[in-house]
Write a structure and sequence with these properties.
The protein has 223 residues and is an all-alpha fold. The chain contains 13 helices and no strands. Helix 9 runs antiparallel to helix 10 and helix 11 runs antiparallel to helix 12. The longest helix is centred in the N-terminal third of the chain and has 14 residues. The radius of gyration is 23 Å and the shape is elongated.
C-alpha cells in the first residue's frame, strides 16, 4: 500500500500530464486516510472545476472551508464555481465577504461585475469594474466588460470611451469593434457604425452580426 506522500506525488504527476481521472483517484485515496488534507482537497476541487463537474467542485471547496473557514482562496474558487453554475446570488454573497476579509483578492471585483450584470444590475456591475480599475495594471478586459454594462444601461458615450480604450490597445479586437459599431448605431451615427461593421467583417468574414447589420443599414428599398 502506498503512503499518502507517494499517492500525492503520483496524483501530481497525473495532474501535470493531464491524466485528470487518474489524479482524482489518487486524491480520493489520500482523502480516505486523511480527509482533512487541504492540498488534496484543493487540487481535487480544481480538477473537478476543469472537468466541468461544478457540483463536485462546490462540494469539495465547501469541505475545505469546513476545515479551514478563513481560507480566502478556497472561498474565491467556491464563488467562481457558483458563478459557473449560474448561481449568481450565492457567488455575490461570497465575493462580497472575500473583499471585506481579503482585499488582496481584488479580482473578486471582476466576478462581482459579471454577476451583477447577469442579474440585470448594470449600475452595480459598473461600480465593481470601476473599483477594480484602481488595482489592476492590466485594465484592458475591465474596460471591455464595463463598456458592455454601460451600453446595456444606455450610457452610450461612456461605453464608446471604454471601447475606444480597448481598440487603442488592440486595434483588431473584433468584439470591441462590433460593440463600438452597435454603440454608434444607438447614437444614430450610421456611417461610423457601417465603417466599424465592415472592419469587423474584414477581420472575421463569418461574423454574422456585422454582416446582418451592414445588410440592414445599406439596404435601400426600391421605389
Amino acid at each position: 500500500m502506498k503512503s499518502a506522500i507517494e499517492n500525492f506525488t503520483l496524483a501530481e504527476k497525473y495532474r501535470m500530464e493531464g491524466k485528470l481521472s487518474k489524479a482524482i483517484e489518487q486524491y480520493q485515496k489520500i482523502l480516505k486516510v486523511h480527509p482533512e488534507s487541504i492540498p488534496a482537497l484543493m487540487n481535487l476541487g480544481n480538477i473537478y472545476f476543469m472537468l466541468g463537474q461544478i457540483n463536485n467542485s462546490i462540494k469539495t471547496y465547501n469541505k475545505v472551508l469546513e476545515y479551514k473557514p478563513k481560507f480566502g482562496y478556497a472561498s474565491y474558487r467556491l464563488a467562481i464555481s457558483h458563478y459557473r453554475a449560474a448561481q449568481f446570488t450565492k457567488a455575490i454573497d461570497i465575493f462580497v465577504k472575500i473583499i471585506e476579509t481579503d482585499p488582496e483578492l481584488y479580482m473578486a471585483h471582476n466576478w462581482l461585475g459579471l454577476c451583477y450584470y447577469h442579474i440585470g444590475d448594470e449600475q452595480k456591475s459598473i461600480e465593481e469594474y470601476t473599483k477594480l480599475l484602481e488595482h489592476t495594471s492590466e485594465p484592458f478586459i475591465i474596460h471591455y466588460h464595463r463598456a458592455i454594462a454601460y451600453k446595456s444601461k444606455g450610457e452610450t458615450d461612456k461605453a464608446i470611451e471604454d471601447l475606444q480604450f480597448v481598440i487603442e490597445t488592440y486595434p483588431e479586437h473584433v468584439s470591441a469593434l462590433y460593440h463600438l459599431g452597435l454603440a454608434y448605431l444607438q447614437k444614430h451615427q450610421i456611417f461610423k457604425a457601417i465603417q466599424l461593421f465592415r472592419k469587423v467583417l474584414k477581420l472575421d468574414p463569418k461574423h454574422k452580426g456585422a454582416a446582418e447589420k451592414i445588410e440592414y443599414l445599406t439596404d435601400v428599398p426600391s421605389i
